[in-house]
Amino acid sequence: MLNPIDPIRSVPTFAEVAAAADRLQGRVVRTPVLRSARLDARTGRRVFFKCENLQQVGAFKYRGALNALLHRQASGAAPGLVATHSSGNHGAALARAARELGWDCAVVVPRDTSPAKLANIRAQGVEPLLCEPGLAAREAATSRLIAERGAELVHPFDDARVIAGQGTAALELLAEVPQLDVLSAPVGGGGLLGGSALAARAMAPECRVIGVEPELADDAARSFRGGERVGFATPPPTLADGLRGSIGALPFELFRSHVDDVLTVSERAIVAAMRVMLEECCLLIEPSSAVPVAALLEGRLGAPGEAVGIILSGGNVDLSVCPFLAGRTAS
User: In this predicted model, which residue has the larger pLDDT, 134 or 30?
Assistant: First the structure.
């Protein structure tokens, strides 16, 4: 049972998203909202991309990580050691936020993490601690680290402060484009879509909120439809490495009350979407970012003529395994 007064473990509200936006003002990039006439014509929709691939550390994750530390700092806590586990982007984000605020940071990542994301963590001054692949291994290694070093956990998606910070991307998008009919984001642990749903329900109540995830990592879709949170025993083999984690408890509660649907797309569609975004929008986005774009290109986000907002979650691409850049196709 969640403690309703615990600021970390309680289901966040829109008021917390708004407070996070005030806290983060001037500290995060107010990323642009971009459009493409060619893509509008191709999809029959009016598409608005919130480019979090241009955020600090190349991903939306910086919003949540920084908000968590600023929230902790405002409570009177002196800088200390924070720790997390990550597929890459949250680790880099927390390392960057900790460096900015004078905290120490430790990051556990699976040993199959993309070299580009490992390099991003190191660029923030933190040497990643490697563990076996899979969420269970990540959590176990982080628990040992916390016990040994007395660190404070900043969870990548099951933390109300993190979710509220992630929701500020959608808040900015809806402030700029209030007439959205559909708002979509990729789903891994669910923090981004959960925070986005809070913003949408408060700012544009008629806007439909739709998550998208890979077919090979469909735990959120199965959880959403079945009404009970499910996960994976082993890491799903999707190219979208940022979406291999299972949906968190707090995001799942937000999904149940604020999300309209969760769709899935194939690996081939994800790669095709990356290529379309590079060719038609001159944006190189990571596979996780391309997941909602894939659903858009398949005609499954919104109806013809509707305004569709998509949060491009990150741009940290491992070019050595990007299929179309290497002259390969997805299986």
Answer: 30
Range of the domain at 69: 62-153
Measured CA to CA, the distance from residue 130 to residue 145 in angstroms comes to 12
Instruction: Give buried/exposed letters for 41-77 (b at 16+ CB in 10 A, else e).
Output: eebebbbbbbbbbbbbbbbbbbbbbbbbbbbbeeeee
Distance CA(39)–CA(77), nearest Å, equals 48
CB 265 within 8 A of CB 238: no
Q: Answer whether residue 294 is part of any domain.
A: yes
Other CB atoms within 10 Å distance of the CB of residue 299: 12
The token pair at 73 is 């700092």
* 259 shares its domain with 213: yes
Residue 3 has pLDDT above 50, yes or no: no
Q: What are phi and psi of 234, to 5 degrees?
A: -130, 155
Of 125, 153, 181, the residue that ends a domain is 153
Q: Identify the pLDDT of residue 266.
A: 98
Examine residue 221 and state whether it is found in any structural domain, yes or no: yes
pLDDT category at 245 given cuts 50, 70, 90 is confident
**Could you tell me if residue 6 is inside a domain?**
no
Q: Considering the domain boundaries, does residue 97 fall inside one?
A: yes
**What is the mean pLDDT of the segment spanning 209-235?**
95
Q: The pTM is what? A: 0.94
